Amino acid sequence: MKKFFKVFLFVLLAAVVLGTFYFLWKKSQPVEKKYVIEEVTKSNIEKRTVATGKVEPRNEILIKPQMSGIIAEVYKEAGDVVKAGDVIAKIKVIPDMVSLSSAESRVVRAQLVFDQSKRDFERNSKLFNEKVISKEEFEKSELQFKNDKEELKSAQDNLGLIRDGVSNDKSQISNTLVRSTINGTILDVPIKVGNSVIQSNNFNDGTTIATVANMSDMLFVGKLDETEVGRVNVGMSMDITIGALQDTKLTATLEYISPKGVEESGAIMFEMKAAVKVPSDVFVRAGYSANAEIVLNKVENILTVPENCIEFSGDTAFVYTLKSENPLAFEKKEVKTGMSDGMKIEIKSGLKLKDKIRGSEIQEKKSEKK
């Protein structure tokens, strides 16, 4: 029994020793790594920068009244499309009592003078026909009659302008009617019925009745960092992406870059403006936030590989080309690179089309313990 027990212990000890040696040998063996095999292809590379900003009309026209008064009626509201000459609002004139009294008195005096001139003209006409007075005297009375008639009309028109804001013979072009000066869309009507308004003068800009803009002539207004502004030029094309319009991309042409920078949050920013081409079936609201992607440089139909395939040693770039698949083996090869967009990089020399190279390492997922 003791002999059997000794043999069992010896066998067990031998198994443990052999198992330990096998484990250590297995652990010392190099782990075979697996890689994604990439292929050299031909494609295009664009280097872009992004500017943030907003889309707004090129010109926003402020419609001002031509006289002071109180808003009597408002005919349009924000969003309405108007043409030049369309009436937006009507002003009720509140006359100055001193001016009104003077104008009424002038009409009364002019009426008295006209009535007298009319009687004199009718009497002299009869006398002239009877050849009692000369033609010269008749023409004098006729001239006086016409002058007094015009003076009465002028006094009446002046009274109408002071009292109602419009003369009798110019009611169609009344200053009390505020009209749009351009074709466009009304962006804002900041006044309401009953509001007092004043006309523009040397001391005041006047009350804004409405803001009108041509919504088909839009600008992207954004800012560029000083590190990028030196690489853009007027005339460059860009793609405009508006957050509120999903799946809609507009094109624009850079028109203006500010010659002076402004400091914002520690960085120097330069204002830029670009003319946006708005299709007829797309409605862009003023003030939409947007991003502009500007193409700084572009190369076409070139050899490219994924940028993560490139390794650098000092100023030298190299890749690992596929030497054999079984066993998996690679050969280090120097290459000359060009432009990169962060995903793909241009290969100027060292590789040919459809060459296979080593990509990123494949990480094996460990089975989770339940």
Give me the secondary-structure topology.
Elements: H1 2-28, E1 35-39, E2 41-57, E3 60-63, E4 69-74, E5 81-82, E6 87-92, H2 97-129, H3 135-164, E7 177-179, E8 184-188, E9 196-197, E10 210-213, E11 218-225, H4 226-229, E12 237-242, E13 249-257, E14 262-264, E15 267-277, E16 288-306, E17 311-313, E18 316-325, E19 328-340, E20 344-349, E21 356-361
Antiparallel strand pairs: 1-21, 2-11, 2-16, 3-10, 4-6, 4-9, 5-8, 6-7, 8-10, 11-15, 12-13, 12-16, 13-15, 14-15, 16-20, 17-18, 18-19, 19-20
Instruction: Write down the secondary-structure element order.
Output: HEEEEEEHHEEEEEHEEEEEEEEEE
- Tell me the β content: 35-45%
Q: What is the domain tally?
A: 4
Residue-averaged pLDDT, rounded? 83
Tell me the CATH superfamily of the largest domain.
Efflux pump adaptor protein, beta barrel domain
State the helical fraction.
25-40%
State the helix count: 4
The end-to-end distance, rounded to whole angstroms, is 44 Å
Rounded to an integer, what's the Rg over CA atoms?
45 Å
Number of strands: 21
Multimeric state: single chain
Written account of the structure:
By secondary structure, the protein is an alpha+beta fold. It folds into 4 domains: 35-45 and 300-361, Beta Barrel (conserved putative lor/sdh protein from methanococcus maripaludis s2 fold), CATH 2.40.420; 49-57 and 215-298, Elongation Factor Tu (Ef-tu), domain 3; 61-93 and 176-213, OB fold (Dihydrolipoamide Acetyltransferase, E2P), CATH 2.40.50.100; 97-171, Orthogonal Bundle (Helix Hairpins). Helix content is 25%, strand content 40%. It has helices at residues 2-28, 97-129, 135-164, 226-229, and strands at residues 35-39, 41-57, 60-63, 69-74, 81-82, 87-92, 177-179, 184-188, 196-197, 210-213, 218-225, 237-242, 249-257, 262-264, 267-277, 288-306, 311-313, 316-325, 328-340, 344-349, 356-361. Strands 2-11-15-13-12-16 form a 6-stranded antiparallel β-barrel. Strands 3-10-8-5 form a 4-stranded antiparallel beta sheet, with no helix packed on it. It has a 4-stranded antiparallel beta sheet with strand order 7-6-4-9, with no helix packed on it. A hairpin with a 2-residue loop joins strand 18 (316-325) and strand 19 (328-340). Helix 2 (97-129) runs antiparallel to helix 3 (135-164). The protein is rod-shaped, with a radius of gyration of 45 Å. The model has no long low-confidence stretch (mean pLDDT 83).
